[in-house]
Amino acid sequence: MMTRNRGLFFVITGAAFWGVGGTVAQKLFQTYQIDVNWLVVVRLLLSGLMLLLLTAFSKKRSQIIAVWKSPQSAFRLIAFSLFGMLAVQYTYMAAINHGNAAVATLLQYLAPIMIMIYYLLTKKARLSKLDGYSAALALGGCFLLLTNGSFSELSVPVQAVVWGVLSGIAAAFYTLSAGRLLEKFDSMVIVGWAMIIGGLCLNTLEPVWKTAPAELPSAAIGYLLFVIVFGTMIAFWFYIKSLESLLPKESSLLGSIEPLAAVLTTVFWLNMPFGLFQWLGAACIISVILLLSAFKRQNAQSVQL
Question: Which of 30, 91, 217, 258 has the fewest Cβ atoms nearer than 10 Å?
Fold first, then answer.
């Protein structure tokens, strides 16, 4: 029982940190005018280094180098880093920057629906009643969330919607592309390297020394450290730790705390307006997460974002 309780603590705490981390990033964008590219690069590089450093002190430290010895694994890792990790991180932060953390997180959690569509189009799975219900809830939830029940206009900027949908697509690719790598290597090694590769790639396009803020007050530094340490590195680490004592289905189910944490902190800490229909939309999307987690197919593969 004690082991299970530790697992519940890890997954709930990690999921809450990811959701709150998005809201704290929104605070950095709106109050301190932090550049999105700069934050993504710093977040990826420092979090990735910390994950690999943790691995270096574990029994699986040899995998840090081993993943590069096979050309096939190295190619898959680079593709996963650029089109999975970097794409997820950048589109998510861009959606927050143009909109808010609540909408960005909820749209990102449409990824399971996109994975379902992929399996359907590639004929790897048949459409079940559960899939149909989930798709209807997701589409209805998105409509309510983005329009607040009005056909005349969106309740969030169009740019935020575009980046949010792209974030969901990127999260789906992240999940689908990581499977073979995770069969051979520890997830902390894969994600740690993916963060570093993604951060270095974005840095070549937009060097951090060109976009770094001229001055950051102590409060902003505190928020930045929270995003890097708690909202990224520890959030992922705790999720991985939870799998040692919980079933993957249980961890995935409890991971739905993430969008809920983002919505609550955005509304009550940042005082962002959220209408009745938007609350209903959020409830619909969270219901999809719960449905797909509770009744996930045995052959489905799932990776945390």
Answer: 217
Residue 56 to residue 137: CA distance in whole angstroms: 43
CB atoms within 10 A of CB 97: 22
The contacts of residue 23 (CB under 8 Å, 6+ apart) are 101, 102, 261, 262, 265, 266, 269, 270
pTM of the model: 0.78
**What region, left, alpha or beta, does residue 153 occupy, with left being phi > 0 and alpha being psi -120 to 50 degrees?**
beta
Exposed, middle or buried: residue 112 (CB in 10 Å: 0-12, 13-18, 19+)? buried
- Helix extents (H) in the chain: 2-32, 36-56, 63-66, 71-80, 87-98, 101-108, 111-121, 129-147, 158-177, 179-184, 187-205, 208-211, 218-225, 235-242, 248-254, 257-268, 276-294
- Mean pLDDT, residues 106-111 taken together: 78
- What is the tens place of the pLDDT at every residue in 230-269? 998 888 778 767 766 766 555 555 666 777 788 888 888 9
Beta carbons of 274 and 124 less than 8 angstroms apart: no
Residue 286, CA distances (Å) to 75, 82, 301 in order: 35, 28, 20
- Please tell me whether residue 70 adopts helix, strand or coil conformation: coil
